């Protein structure tokens, strides 16, 4: 028999990750505010309906995959929180992307109770979660990392322990997402220019795919979203916007000026305010197009 594992947050990322753990013979106890998500875990052989308090008593590892700082803070430090109710020796692994300052706050609180805490943000999207090809960048104590490695190896293909600083994995993740923000904006503008220049987008892809303009984000955004005019996420524009904000906060902490990144954040903020937030980030291409007719 495998491990007993808690999994809080069964959304676009969390559900397939929890299902992967199940498929390797582990027992997974899931919690989500969304009952449909819990029902999906149940259908895959998981256990639902237990309180967090109860799960803490049953398992040695708990993963979280949550959409916001507020949700992460509530789930870890709220009245019924994982750290509030946690016990010595349990390993808590947050795969959400949050500000480095929250990683630090949770690590300090966890340490007081001898709880092991890792901040382990992931990259690779929903497809990576489904195919178990995620890249996972982990910050925190090496010993807890080594203990968790067999489980992390189920979830992803490339697992890195960045260093013992709890926020180190998050820094790498935010740098990655800053680049994703750049590429997505670049692809959105470039493809609009191509269309105005009477270039067929499928043909353009073929040509740029063997040129230096190629990128994994171009391939993803074009093939999975723009070409099908279908922007169901994926990775929502509002989640990207959140991460760009954290990246710029990190830059401020270091008194580093990043003027192009500031501009980028503004573009995504506008897009979110105009109602594009819940669609995949590739929808920025449509915003650029719609802006021409304003
Ligand atoms: P999501 O919104 O699809 O899933 C979050 C889930 O958490 C939802 O099912 C929601 O109901 C649940 N939830 C929220 N508050 C809760 C609470 N208090 N208790 C229990 N459940 C709660 O988001 P997602 O796309 O799965 O992203 C999750 C995290 O992973 C985010 O931090 C995101 O930045 C990060 N991430 C996402 C992607 C991606 O491609 N979607 C890629 C890498 C990292």
TrEMBL record:
<dbReference type="InterPro" id="IPR013328">
    <property type="entry name" value="6PGD_dom2"/>
</dbReference>
<dbReference type="InterPro" id="IPR006115">
    <property type="entry name" value="6PGDH_NADP-bd"/>
</dbReference>
<dbReference type="InterPro" id="IPR008927">
    <property type="entry name" value="6-PGluconate_DH-like_C_sf"/>
</dbReference>
<dbReference type="InterPro" id="IPR015815">
    <property type="entry name" value="HIBADH-related"/>
</dbReference>
<dbReference type="GO" id="GO:0050661">
    <property type="term" value="F:NADP binding"/>
</dbReference>
<comment type="similarity">
    <text>Belongs to the HIBADH-related family.</text>
</comment>
<dbReference type="Pfam" id="PF03446">
    <property type="entry name" value="NAD_binding_2"/>
</dbReference>
<dbReference type="GO" id="GO:0016054">
    <property type="term" value="P:organic acid catabolic process"/>
</dbReference>
<dbReference type="Pfam" id="PF14833">
    <property type="entry name" value="NAD_binding_11"/>
</dbReference>
<protein>
    <submittedName>
        <fullName>3-hydroxyisobutyrate dehydrogenase</fullName>
    </submittedName>
</protein>
<dbReference type="GO" id="GO:0051287">
    <property type="term" value="F:NAD binding"/>
</dbReference>
<dbReference type="InterPro" id="IPR036291">
    <property type="entry name" value="NAD(P)-bd_dom_sf"/>
</dbReference>
<dbReference type="GO" id="GO:0016616">
    <property type="term" value="F:oxidoreductase activity, acting on the CH-OH group of donors, NAD or NADP as acceptor"/>
</dbReference>
<feature type="domain" description="6-phosphogluconate dehydrogenase NADP-binding">
    <location>
        <begin position="4"/>
        <end position="161"/>
    </location>
</feature>
<feature type="active site">
    <location>
        <position position="173"/>
    </location>
</feature>
<dbReference type="InterPro" id="IPR029154">
    <property type="entry name" value="HIBADH-like_NADP-bd"/>
</dbReference>
<dbReference type="InterPro" id="IPR002204">
    <property type="entry name" value="3-OH-isobutyrate_DH-rel_CS"/>
</dbReference>
<keyword id="KW-0560">Oxidoreductase</keyword>
<keyword id="KW-0520">NAD</keyword>
<feature type="domain" description="3-hydroxyisobutyrate dehydrogenase-like NAD-binding">
    <location>
        <begin position="168"/>
        <end position="285"/>
    </location>
</feature>
